[in-house]
Design brief:
The complex is a heterodimer of chains A (222) and B (152). Chain A has 222 residues and is an alpha/beta fold. Helices cover 31% and strands 20% of the residues of chain A. In chain A, helix 2 runs parallel beside helix 3 and helix 5 runs parallel beside helix 6. The longest helix of chain A is centred in the C-terminal third of the chain and has 19 residues. Chain A is globular, with a radius of gyration of 17 Å. Chain A starts with a strand and ends in a 6-residue tail after the last strand. The model of chain A has no long low-confidence stretch (mean pLDDT 91). Chain B contains 1 helix and 8 strands, in the order E-E-E-E-E-E-E-E-H. The mean pLDDT of chain B is 93. Helix content of chain B is 3%, strand content 42%. A 4-stranded antiparallel β-sheet of chain B has the order 1-8-3-6, with no helix packed on it. In chain B, strands 2-7-4-5 form a 4-stranded antiparallel β-sheet, with no helix packed on it. In chain B, a hairpin with a 7-residue loop joins strand 4 and strand 5. Classes of the chains: A alpha/beta (222), B mainly beta (152). At the A-B interface, helix 4 of A face strand 3 of B.
Chain lengths: 222, 152
């Protein structure tokens, strides 16, 4: 089964416009602001992923609009009822388990691992739902580097470049997160699923390798 | 009948502050002099990451020389159920974590160490310490550790 997994990085929306029409049969999952692309551009979306406390209220309306229009299933991580209620997720459709504690850059088919990044949760969801081909859009990693004080509060950017399709920059140490979480997690999934064909789109700031990997990297989408 | 709260005092460990991400909460040191028991309560709010550290430390000197309290370290110490405790996870929103302390075995000053993990947004948390079985009761709100107190 072919899947399109959509994150919100800089070239994501353009690649989505390019790729989605060529795969009308693909199962689609999107996270956070990428959900609004599907709504605004009129693409069918099968699953909308929302979990963090900021994204839930921000993109929840778009996700519910997709459910109303396309029957999109709203997905999140299983939490206590009170926690779901506080995030406005009581009416969500699918709850997946966070069976491990702490950040793990591993993947075991049939399980979910805490990676604290919505795009990678979506990847795991696709792989755990029998994907044989995964088209990864809008997950190019982070290039901005911001410093934070001892309280963990944002201070300033040392490197500020667009990391998201709306032009905004990541507010933490993007290269570090990319190197320590995104790259290992992507490669873990690639290695764990050798029969799955992975297609990555965009200007990746990390390296993902394997005989089952193809990277589509163009200066401009055409 | 005596009021069971009469010989208690509250210490505002972690006031409800802004979200923490990959950083430690500034905690209030607890002077336990005059009390026999303490209950440390940590209340998590919304979180998208596991807590990196949650433990008690003790010292006989205010402000310095703190060392871990054996048995009061989430993640390694044994919990009430007899199992190895686990640090609060990324899905433990709105849950309460407690440490009960027999102060008669401890140094005078206790300090809670609470560190949020490195998540997307971070963790909200607050904390209160209840000092119990005090040798003296309170007569004012301030002595109870509060700004105001209502009694019914």
């Amino acid at each position: 089964m072919r899947w399109i997994v959509t994150g919100a990085s800089t070239s994501g929306r353009e690649w989505l416009r390019h790729v989605a029409p060529t795969m009308p049969d693909a199962v689609r999952i999107a996270a956070n602001s990428a959900i609004t692309w599907y709504l605004e551009d009129g693409h069918h979306l099968d699953y909308a992923w929302l979990t963090d406390a900021v994204a839930c209220p921000k993109y929840g309306p778009a996700a519910r609009a997709m459910r109303k229009q396309y029957g999109t299933k709203l997905c999140t991580i299983m939490r206590s009822h009170e926690a779901l209620r506080h995030r406005g997720q009581e009416d969500f459709d699918i709850f997946v388990g966070n069976e491990r504690r702490g950040i793990e850059n591993v993947f075991e088919h049939g399980r979910y691992h805490d990676v604290s990044l919505s795009g990678i949760w979506c990847m795991q969801f696709a792989l755990n739902h029998w994907a044989t081909e995964v088209h990864v859009i809008g997950q190019e990693g982070y290039r901005s580097r911001a410093t934070r004080n001892s309280e963990g509060e944002f201070v300033k950017w040392e490197v500020q470049v667009p990391d998201y399709a709306d032009g905004s920059a990541y507010t933490k140490d993007g290269p570090l997160v990319t190197a320590e979480r995104i790259e290992p997690a992507m490669n873990a999934m690639v290695r764990a699923c050798p029969v799955v064909k992975f297609h990555f789109y965009g200007d990746l700031s990390y390296r993902v390798e394997g005989p089952n990997v193809e990277v589509h990297q163009c200066a401009s989408v055409s | 009948m005596s009021n069971p709260f009469q010989n208690m005092k509250l210490v505002n460990l972690i006031p409800p502050v802004a979200i923490k991400d990959n950083a430690s909460w500034t905690t209030t040191e607890v002077d336990t002099k005059g009390y026999d028991y303490a209950l440390f309560i940590v209340n998590l709010g919304a979180t998208d990451i596991a807590i990196a550290a949650l433990k008690l430390q003790e010292s006989n000197t205010s402000g310095s020389g703190f060392a871990d309290v054996t048995g009061a370290i989430y993640g390694t110490s044994t919990n009430l159920a007899g199992s190895t405790s686990t640090l609060p996870a990324a899905t433990d929103d709105d849950k309460v974590f407690a440490i009960l302390v027999d102060l008669r075995k401890r140094s005078r000053y206790l300090d809670l160490v609470a560190t949020a993990g490195n998540g997307t947004n971070g963790t909200f948390a607050s904390g209160i310490c209840v000092l119990a079985r005090g040798h003296n009761g309170f007569t004012t709100a301030a002595e109870f550790g509060c700004s105001q107190v209502l009694v019914v």
